[in-house]
Task: structure prediction
Amino acid sequence: MDTLVADAATRALEDHDAGGLTVAVVDGDEVHTSGYGHAFRSEDVQVRADETLFRVGSVSKVLAWTAAMQVVDGGQIAPDAPVDDHLDAVDLPDTYDEPITLEHLATHTPGFEARGRGDSVSDPEHVRPLAESVSTDVPARVRPPGELPQYTNYAAALTGQLIADVSGQPFHSFVTENVFAPLGMSNSTFRAAPPGLVPADGTNVDDVVSFYSDVSPASGLHTTAADMARLLQAHLNGGVVDGERILSESAVDAMHRQWFTPHERMDGMAFGLFERSRGDTRILRHGGGVPQFSTEFALLPEEGVGLFVVAHGSEASDAKQEVADALLDRYAPVDSSGQRRSPDGTPERAGELGGRYRSVNATDTVSSEKLVFGLFTGRPIDVRVADDGRLITEQGDSIDEWVEVEPLVFEHVEEGSTLVFRETDGEVTHLLDGLSAYERIGHHERLSVQGWLTVAASVIALTGLVGWPAARGWRRYRGGGSPPASVTRARWVAGAGVAGLLSFVLAFVAVSVVVVSMGRPTLFDRPPAWFEVVFVVPTLGAVATAGAVAYAVRAWVRSEWSLAARVHYSAVVAAATVLYWLLQYWNLLWVRMG
Result:
């Protein structure tokens, strides 16, 4: 084991731009921990498995779900009980009759929209108490609970607050007392900026760290490989390590069983852990990533094996994955000699499957964050059916082939993964790639199409905003007559509509500058409560544009103005209308359609 880990770690650090990594492996009674390379931004400090702190990102959630199972194990809350009945710090929207339960939170199926704001800050002084973080900007409920998986940090953060409200003590205190202390995880902490994270040479922390979790149960853990080995042992040994029990054996079994799957052929969710089939081996895992850090936590319950790998550096993800893969190749080998699947014919509903599918993080977001998720959270999937019946999916540079095994269910031609299409009222609407959900979008919703529309419409709209005053000034200079009063009024109204667009951009930039000058978190991290006022500006512009549409219609009905004036005015108004439709689509108006 020592040689395998050492060879994989050395190779990973040589092959990738990663400064250091640490590993923990539990195999029955054997426990291996080791460190390689140097500590974060401290090249003279060697990584030690028992004391070098690493950020583990979303692997923090493993602690949150373990703690949640503790309160279940203690009879303080049932997994199927409405969490709103036990939460003191936050009231959840009652959008649907079905209540959100702890089971929904643990399987990422509560039906919340994605929420990015409030997840992190760039200065530890801005980190809020958990109760404040989860009760500010509460995400909307966009679908009934249990219907569709959608991974969010908010589910874990809310679980942390649920633990606090049920137990009567802060989340970090509960975990310290009930997990860290009995397991001997003495170097683990949810503190925002523990001393062991900053460089040993005294460099200002703000110069090297730009991410601090504002939802600590979801992403705020700092820990060591030796400490995480103790957590692995607890999960593999029925909840007890060296005589110290944190969970009953039945609670561990319950935590590891499948709680949700989109389809019986697909891997699903255990209690807070993702299922992954690797050959005949069932793995329960969770990954994590924050700037400069990448982590893998994996349990192979039937084999009595657990793995933990975390690396830091600009290519930390690649380095971490190389070591994790080397370990999984040993404990969960995959037979790569399997035959390639061939389709038996054309898929049953082939004509309904093709198109582009975008992550529900964007399609189901009703806040102004929709554009952020649309641009930066995952590439869309393009689907088409080949002549021989194979389903082809393209996501970025990745191209995969699938064959239908039952209506709307496809399996990879070489791997063991499954793809499922979902329908609503008889129409194919969603694609499920594992636990990632995508919604089918129209051609007009594609970013490339909307990008060209934005450019073309902006140019045309500016010909009115700039051209009309310029033409008026030129006529005055040449001593020409003024246009009819109706033309002037119509142009003022249309100009106000176009100006609303420009004013929105300027207002957004101005607010960003003001927020930074106030020493606050960024608009993305935590917009101030009054930020929504900014969206009033384009909304007023949209009202003016609606009035301009009325002027254009009247001009054509009454044959007013010259033909050229009517055509140009209509083009400007149409362009402004397109731009306001785009703002409405991305939830950038004060009045939103969802």
The two ends are 54 Å apart (CA to CA). The chain has a mean pLDDT of 92.
